[in-house]
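Forum > Structural Biology > Help requests

Title: Can anyone predict the 3D structure of E3 ubiquitin-protein ligase?

Hi all, first post here. I have the sequence for E3 ubiquitin-protein ligase but no way to get a structure on my laptop. I'd be grateful if someone could post the structure tokens.
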Amino acid sequence: MGNVISGGSRPENHRDRTSPPYPNPSAQYQGNYPSPYQDCARYPYGEMASPVQYVEHQEAVTIRNDINLKKETLRLEPDEQNPGKFLLSFTFDASVPGSITVMFFAKEGKDCNLIATKEDLFPSTQVSFAKGLEQRFKQACGTGIDFSDMSEADLVEANETDVYHVAVKAEVVSEDDHPESGTPNRQITHVVLEKDHKGEYKARVVKQILWVNGNRYVLQEIYGIGNTVDDNGEDANERGKECVICLSEPRDTTVLPCRHMCMCSGCAKLLRFQTNLCPICRQPVDRLLEITVNNNDRN
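Reply #1:
Sure, ran it for you. Structure tokens for E3 ubiquitin-protein ligase below:
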């Protein structure tokens, strides 16, 4: 588990420079000086500067993910041997062997187990895979989905419940899995079907979940992290990859909840005490997450 960086103490809040000084101590004021955090109406010398909200700064938790489905590659392709049917395809990386299960109209159960709600109409398929990078998965001919068997009511019903049109479970076989978790490590990808302007169905990934050592994590995309490493997997402090504040140090800190990776850790520490707005989108900041890209782990 990563360590939370200590935030330090809150900086002292000074009154507005345009306000006159506090009155001289006397019997009527002793023990009763107005606090700068009190309502301005109770402070007779003008408005006080609003205290800056403290922003927490912590380090990212590193989780080993043995398999990763690349959601941008997921799509439906026509089944050439079975007109009217479509096959799910995508690209994935795996550091250990395992299996992939495709379910239609599935919901997530306990411990990230998938439950098919229309197994009789849309049977699930499962295939095994070996370890390797840039592997391409495609359903076998005849195992895809026929949209003529699916009504608009089915889609609407799924959208209004916790059922997803398509779910992909990538489960690994690893010696590092913890038996006490009850289930092996896995990645779940939830997909919805939508019609485009031509009336054709398209697949769109709406959520990816990791189940690692008995813990569930929802994957969130970080905007800008891809520009911090070059094509050779080496850090590159080039134009567009540096901190947006100092313009010299590489970016390593992400703003939450907007997920913009735009600052170096040094500038982020200063930001905690100066403002609570993201430098990119100006949305309020709840937390700052420091992320270290370890290129030695890249295969």
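The CA atoms of residues 191 and 205 lie 4 Å apart. Confidence is low (pLDDT under 50) at residues 1-50, 228-239.
Shout if anything looks off.
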